[in-house]
Amino acid sequence: MGTSGGRFSGYCVGEHPGRTGRTNRLPGFLGGPPVWLLTSLAYFAGMWTWKGTTVGGIVLGLKVARLDGGCLTFVVALVRALAAAFSVMILFLGFLWIAWDTDKQGWHDRIAGTVVLRLPRGTSARLPVANLERRT
């Protein structure tokens, strides 16, 4: 085996040693839902339903709430997560929209009818929505 050949030279052209057949070069969302997408949807929808926030939201003092003051159900949280995934696929435009929106809502918030609220220091994420102010 010389320097130009050998066991790992196939990596340069997209082949894998020891594998035969066609390599799937399609992005994950075209060849079926990737595991990371399903895991992310489950994590975000589950945490928003259970706690009203995520681990990062707890650290930053943020909470997701419905605009009508109702309970954040799993279906609403799942719709928000799917809309956020769509925003990511469109070059994060749904998240960048927050900078220009007067209500500071992303596409995922508009679609799901939610808003992100800032918690006062030292309060729980389970604080009723009526006592919170909008994130600015």
Spell the H/E element sequence. HHEHHHEE
Task: Point out poorly predicted stretches.
Answer: 7-13
Structural class by secondary-structure content: alpha+beta
Task: Give the termini distance in whole angstroms.
Answer: 62 Å
The chain-level mean pLDDT equals 81
Please list the strands of the largest sheet in the order they lie side by side.
Answer: 1-2-3
Question: What would the principal axes of the Cα set say about the shape?
Answer: globular
Helix-strand blueprint:
Layout: H1 35-50, H2 55-60, E1 62-66, H3 74-89, H4 93-96, H5 107-112, E2 114-118, E3 133-134
Antiparallel strand pairs: 1-2, 2-3
Helix pairs in contact: 1-3
How would you sum up this structure, described in words?
Helices cover 35% and strands 9% of the residues. By secondary structure, it is α+β, with helices and mostly antiparallel strands. It has one domain. It has a 3-stranded antiparallel β-sheet. Helix 1 crosses helix 3. It is globular. The termini are far apart.
